[in-house]
Fold:
Amino acid sequence: MIVPTHDSSELARQTADGSWTLAHAEHSEWYHSRAGALTEARHLYVVASGILGEFEQGNCVRVLDVGLGLGYNALATVDAWLQSGAKAHLQILSLENDEALFHALRSGSAPWQIGWNPFWIEALKGLRCESDGLWRGVIRGPGGGALDWHVILGDARSDASISLLQKSGPHDYVWQDPFSPKKNPGMWTADWFSAVALAVGCDGCLMTYSVARKVRDALEVSGWRVEKIPTTSHKKNWLRAFRLARVGDPT
Ligand SMILES: C[S@@+](CC[C@H](N)C(=O)[O-])C[C@H]1O[C@@H](n2cnc3c(N)ncnc32)[C@H](O)[C@@H]1O
Structure:
């Protein structure tokens, strides 16, 4: 089913797992594949990254969520943390340049939020503006850990965003999920991956859906080791990358 949204330039449709996604009018691209918006968030980012093991062991974890979008990757991460008992702190830093989309997400009544877990809506409504373009929400978990969720609004590649994301690191995981390299090329360059590498600890893990040669090359020249991994979806491979050691890393 496809329905028009609040913004007539965008359409919403239901994906195979029942979760909803949007079409971006300017890019003529859907935010998620038809195979399942929430399923991809869970399988590609949460499961294939190995973050579940960290939650099980009660480790503190920092996640850099590139392209908050409709919120699935961030919220699937929060779900997994809660299901593992939320024993230690989880920090998420989400980056998003579409302010209207962020406010629709926070409203809890956007077209893609039909049937959402009330806890997700509560977490989103709990985000408060800390300063211009910076939002934050804190939620105590049942096992003693807390979720500390920041959202930076604006171009992720701006000096201000890069300085904030590097200061809030080192991040352990990166969910690299902008639009495709064809439609959103600036978010897949060696410059961008170098900036992210500086915000990530040694062996930090970056997950993404694109295995394009250009993306792998850009990662490799900016300090990442890449590997293609099998998917659980219609696509053959996803990409996992690890930040290589560099001079200045703690020994
Ligand atoms: C495919 S969607 C992300 C889907 C999202 N991760 C989810 O779980 O629903 C890509 C998102 O990246 C954002 N984006 C694209 N370029 C950006 C940039 N330069 N800075 C910050 N966000 C950007 C878009 O506005 C869009 O919301």
In short: The radius of gyration is 17 Å. The longest strand covers residues 200-208. The domain at 36-243 is CATH 3.40.50.150 (Rossmann fold). Residues 97 and 155 are 5 Å apart (CA to CA).
